[in-house]
Amino acid sequence: MLKKLALTLLMTAMVFSASVAGPVQAKTADQLYPVEVNGKYGFINGQGKVVIEAVYDGYGYSAAPGGKVYVEDHAAKKQYYFNSAGTKLFEYKLRDASILYNDRALYTAKVQLAGGATATRYGYIDSQGKVAIQPIYVKAFNFSEGLASVNMGKASGYINTKGKLIIPYRYSSTSDFSEGMAVVKLAVNGKYGYIDTTGKLRITPRYDHATLFSDGAAVVYVNGKYGYIDKNGNYLIKPQFSMAQPFSEGLAFVERNGATFYINKKGAKVIQGFTAGGLFKGGLAPVSPGQRYGYINTSGRFVVKPQLYWADSFNGELAEITLLVPETREEIRGYMNRSGTIVWPPASELPAGVEKP
Q1: Residue 30: helix, strand or coil by DSSP?
Q2: Are 243 and 237 in contact (CB under 8 A)?
Q3: Do residues 340 and 353 make contact, with C-beta atoms less than 8 angstroms apart?
Q4: CA 48 to chain centre
Q5: Distance between CA atoms of 301 and 315, rounded to whole angstroms?
Q6: Cα 239 from chain centre
Q7: Residue 307 half-sphere exposure, CB side, CA atoms within 13 Å?
Q8: pLDDT at 188
């Protein structure tokens, strides 16, 4: 199974669920990565060292620097929260709370309504597991840049980490904040525009679809084509692409007339020859010229040859990769550092004959 990296990244960018943090660059000590051992889960750091033993039944984590993680203990019906150093923070009832963003995690509770009926509502706990914001919201999303989209029943607005309403309930659709801007839609069948963290409308709604800002640019969709705008709503590159990824480190992977390639912010084609490509992080991006993935630098030269079954963009010091055992066709999930060394699984645990760089 060959994963379509370009399509996956595009779909991720187009989801407005406030569940995904913007692109980040993390230090090794600030980042944890989930691993699986014999059907159990734990976490390693950027050097491949086990920080949380793989003895748990599930997990959740934030890709942000210093991100908190949790692991699930199904027998105890609890989930345990840890910081990036592997220190336990608190425990919570299994699957009643989500990942911590901005030291706030969504949780659910049954509340009694005025008529006597009960309903599920959303609130937030803090990094000690204490209630920080009461469960009063019909819909609520994770925090980003200190704000979270919430809905009391009809329209959505934004609150701060203390639960104060900062941006009034007036939107039918909202997104995370990224680079100080969020995508919003006023009417159910309306167009998309952008607001800043004060709620000021910065870019008038006029797009059929729009994505978060990344590297000073945002992908917008107009009349069946994708293009790029700046933070003033001016076109950096007019809509002309059938697929367009976010800009990262000055480059973006796009498709036009059946051809895929990287462009710069002037729209010039600068790297080509790949059927799939991902975001540049720390000067490297995953690409595939056909059946295997490797990593290129911003000049388009391979730093890691295309011998991987699949590869994701770097997140901090490591990138998730997939190795293939040829005879069994078994897929092995692992992590690679920027030198092209597989840090997980340990070399001693890789099956004989596994394909690797």
Answers
A1: helix
A2: no
A3: no
A4: 21
A5: 20
A6: 25
A7: 12
A8: 85
pLDDT of residue 34: 97
Considering the entire predicted model, what is its pTM? 0.88
Q: Which structure tokens are listed for 100?
A: 């911590």
Model pLDDT, residue 24: 37
pLDDT tens, 11-44?
333 323 333 333 334 344 478 999 999 999 999 9
Q: With contact defined as beta carbons under 8 Å apart, do 27 and 13 qualify?
A: no
Burial of 39 (0-12, 13-18, 19+ CB in 10 A): exposed
Backbone φ and ψ of 251, nearest 5°: -130, 150
| Amino acid letter, residue 152 | M
Nearest alpha carbon to residue 230 among 263, 198, 265, 254: 265
Q: What's at 34, amino acid-wise? A: P
Distance, CA of 203 to chain centre: 24
Q: Quick check: 144 and 102 in contact, CB under 8 A?
A: yes
For 275-325, how does the pLDDT look when each residue is reduced to its tens digit (9 = 90+)? 999 999 999 999 999 999 999 999 999 999 999 999 999 999 999 999 998
Compute the Cα dihedral for 304, 306, 310, 313 and give only its sign. positive
285/281 Cα distance (integer angstroms): 6
Residues 171-200 have pLDDT tens digits of 999 999 999 999 999 988 899 999 999 999
Amino acid at 211: T
Q: Is 208 helix (H, G, I), strand (E, B) or coil?
A: coil
Bridge-partner residues for 248, per DSSP?
251
Single-letter code of the amino acid located at 223: N
pLDDT at 258: 97
Q: Judge contact between 205 and 238, C-beta under 8 A.
A: no
Q: Does residue 327 carry a pLDDT above 60?
A: yes
